[in-house]
Amino acid sequence: MERLQKVMAHSGVASRRKSEEMILQGRVSVNGKKVTELGVKVVSGDRIEVDGIPIYQEQPVYFAFYKPRGVISAVSDDKNRKVVNDYFTGISERIFPVGRLDYDTSGLLIMTNDGDFANVLAHPKHEIEKTYVAKIKGNPTPEDLRVFRRGVVIDGRKTAPAKYKILSSDRAKGTSIVELIIHEGRNHQVKKMFEAVGLPVLKLKREKVGSLNLLGLMSGQYRELSKKEVSQLLVEAKGK
Fold first, then answer.
1. Is there a contact between 35 and 7 (Cβ–Cβ < 8 Å)?
2. CATH topology of domain 2-54
3. Where in the chain do CATH 3.10.290.10 domains reside?
């Protein structure tokens, strides 16, 4: 026997935490009976439905996706805007993004149907590094960005220490390219960190999640991760 939310997560419905929310919202039934409390266990052969749709055990799949700008990190959108799942028309599994990238941010996004895997990578206690490259307005010196090492206050709360490197500076245009490595996932965090030191972000791209990068991918393309890559990501997340 296994807990209902664990089975839902393994089936690709959502992460375990989101599955628990669905249960509490009364959206899940087992063998025709609505479940609204946590702790229910199920066995093989039980009929589980979410919003009236049966769920099936799927083999876990994992993808690295190069999200273009102007695409929403979601499986669907009520305003009919383009979402990341629109690029996976040949995939039968019900995949979803691990975390999110802003609408106008491009770069690496991991897609999967493994809710437990997604939860490990996205959980705040697991400090997996995320590498961003930002084009900013201004020409800061390394000393100007030293505050990032200590953390800056955004939305009333201090960020964790971050690493940074100035990659290039165009004084004629008044812009610079800066690499920033963080391990948190707060809303608009990178943009707000630069804004906190008076350097607005003009363009933003996520280059890496842990050791995983965009090598070999063009914008809008994806590739399946190897078992070694999946294992390495889990080691990097849990090993902190």
1. no
2. 3.10.290
3. 2-54
The answer to whether the CB of 233 falls within 8 A of the CB of 213 is no
Q: What is the mean pLDDT of each run of 10 residues along the chain (240 residues)?
A: 84 80 94 93 87 80 97 90 93 88 96 86 81 98 95 94 97 98 91 96 97 96 96 84
d(CA 115, CA 5): 10
Distance, CA of 39 to CA of 30 (rounded, Å): 13
| Helix, strand, coil tally for the chain in percent (to 5) | 25, 30, 45
Number of helical (H) and strand (E) elements in the chain, helices listed first: 6, 17
What would be the CATH architecture of the domain defined by 62-125+212-238?
A: 2-Layer Sandwich (3.30)
**46 included as an active-site residue:** no
Read off the tokens for 91: 């995939």
Name the segment(s) of the chain with CATH classification 3.30.70.1560: 130-209
Q: What is the pTM of this model?
A: 0.79
Q: Which of 46, 78, 86, 102 is catalytic?
A: 102
CATH number of 130-209: 3.30.70.1560
> CB atoms < 10 A from the CB of 173, how many?
9
Helix (H), strand (E) at residue 16 = helix 16-24
Gap between the Cα atoms of 112 and 230, Å rounded: 11
pLDDT at 78: 84
In the chain, the N- to C-terminal Cα span, in Å, equals 31
